[in-house]
Design brief:
The protein is about 30% helix and about 20% strand. It has two helices and two strands. Strands 1-2 form a two-stranded antiparallel sheet. A hairpin with a 5-residue loop joins β1 (about 10-15) and β2. The model has no long low-confidence stretch (mean pLDDT about 90).
Length: about 70
């Protein structure tokens, strides 16, 4: 309807310690929760390095994501 907010795209970006982008993603999903594991996989693939500290807002907070981070 007129004046309503329409969520069209949801962008994800991962940066390294130096501030450079190491992975990006774009979806039509409204919530972030499902994007953390695939983005971490993309970081590992793109950098060939072990992931150290992960900083994410509470939009990614689920039991499944916490379990994925613990591995």
């Amino acid at each position: 309807s007129e004046g309503a907010v329409v969520y069209a795209y949801n962008a994800q970006a991962e940066v390294g310690e130096d501030g450079l982008f190491v992975a990006t993603g774009l979806t039509t999903a409204v919530r972030d929760t499902e994007h953390l594991p695939p983005m971490l996989d993309a970081v590992a693939k793109n950098t060939s390095e072990e992931i150290g500290t992960v900083l994410a807002d509470n939009g990614y907070l689920t039991e499944a994501n916490l379990e994925a981070l613990a591995q």
